[in-house]
Amino acid sequence: MSEALLHIKGLKVRYGAIEAVKGIDLQVQAGERVTLIGANGAGKTTFFNVMTGLYTADSGRFMLDGQAYAPTAVHKVAQAGIARTFQNIRLFNSMTVLENVMVGRHVRTRNGVWAALSRHRRAREEERETEAVARHLLDYVGIGQWADSRADALSYGHQRRLEIARALATEPRLLALDEPAAGMNATEKQQLRGLLEKIRDDGRTVLLIEHDVKLVMGVCDRISVLDYGTLIAEGTPQDVRRHPAVIKAYLGGAAHV
Hints:
The two termini are 29 Å apart. The strands form two sheets. The chain has a six-stranded mixed beta sheet, with helices on both faces. A four-stranded antiparallel beta sheet has the order 2-1-4-5, covered by helices on one side. The chain contains ten helices and ten strands. 38% of the residues lie in helices and 23% in strands. The protein is α/β, with parallel strands linked by helices and 257 residues long.
């Protein structure tokens, strides 16, 4: 197997006497779609928060594209090539839909604050390019017609899509989605599945947390299962759904998958 795009080894996180993540090893290959599943409290979001610089690990080794990676600050994580969404939507509600995506894009722009304030020619050109990319991404996720609306005017499902567009605007090598279907109704979930399939077909590398196992079964290549901070199973969706430890811990029987 080739060098993993993301390789995390021996990750441990403690909250006082509680060991929330217990020495997890995880690899994600370039172009692969991997899903983390597990009950509430399994350690999924803690894992994501450490990987993206919100929390600090007690121990563990991080490698990104073969290079040592230290997730110590959110903006450095984005610059390194990892973009994420959140279980609880985090948008700039007073800004337009388009502006929200443009904010994400600015992690890849070259001109600084002074060039922008002076309206230098290069800054104006770069701003036009940024807007063009943002509009393209809004069309990509299916909400381009609302580009000039305020973000808080979007429906809940469309706000989720906006978060994904903003993450994609950073040109991530790894797209990390934290429960993108949380709070969605059945129709919104079906539409989200279509978008995830589109992202999959475009060959993007995705690490996904999701409670809705049925939603991800046809989207991901591999599933990793956490139970109280421990990785208890890993494999293809077909293998995982038949794994005795998974059936016992979460599913109650294969018929539930």
